[in-house]
């Protein structure tokens, strides 16, 4: 295992805020592992612990078989870290940033050029431009080059595609797939559920806790109910009526449609026909669909909230 996390806990404000709550997971060599969740889920705190920038309150973690507390200096030589906020020297040019970080790790741009060649070729036309003047997508590519310049064993990418256009997001994930072929372990965090499918395995996170760890396909397959999508001309009225229907287990807005499950999947087809007949709304359509990672996340989040309320009583 390239990364092992065992029962890590981290709080802030003297224990008032729980950022990481008893988190455990492991990452294999050459694996793309995703931490998926919204802001405040604890993703950045975990990354900062694993890159030795933050001490855990309790628990243990190892990176490349090195302890994050005892062996922090050696870990920093073996990992690459791309924080969520662009943190390179904005007054230095693209090439100056690359050579600076290569020097910090006692290597050269030329020595590991093969590792970043595909990425660097895209920013090479701007190598004399100051980093602060680059577009969001180009800043992202430069930051990735700097994180790779010393050939790390493990690469940590904290929300690397946030605020980046769709084309640059797609290009970035193509770069990660190529890096995976070089047997680099990659941990990536993202709030974008659609990026979960691009990882080998994912951990769905909410409020500092992991709700599920598995492959994206297995998480979707474990969705326990039949899922339906509903559309109508008056979507708000439909939402209110479905949420008040005693046979409906859950109903929430999902883009231009509503996603809903029934308390029982038995005779669901007749239930759908009955709802369509009773609603009397223009252009009403209800059809069964395949769940997504986002559907699974929402269901797990609601189940956890229900368990928390039950435990508190």
Q: Which CATH top level class of the largest domain fits?
A: Alpha Beta
SS summary, helix count: 10
How many individual β-strands?
14
* Main sheet: strands, sense, barrel: 6 strands, mixed
* Spatial arrangement of strands, main beta sheet: 6-7-8-3-9-10
Taking pLDDT < 50 over at least 5 consecutive residues as the criterion, the unreliable ranges are none
Q: What is the CATH T-level topology of the largest domain?
A: Rossmann fold
Structural category is: alpha/beta
- In round numbers, the mean pLDDT is 92
Into which percent range does the helicity of residues fall?
25-40%
Report the β-strand fraction as a percent range: 25-35%
In CATH, what is the homologous superfamily of the largest domain? P-loop containing nucleotide triphosphate hydrolases
Short structural description:
The protein is of the alpha/beta class and about 325 residues long. The chain contains ten helices and 14 strands.
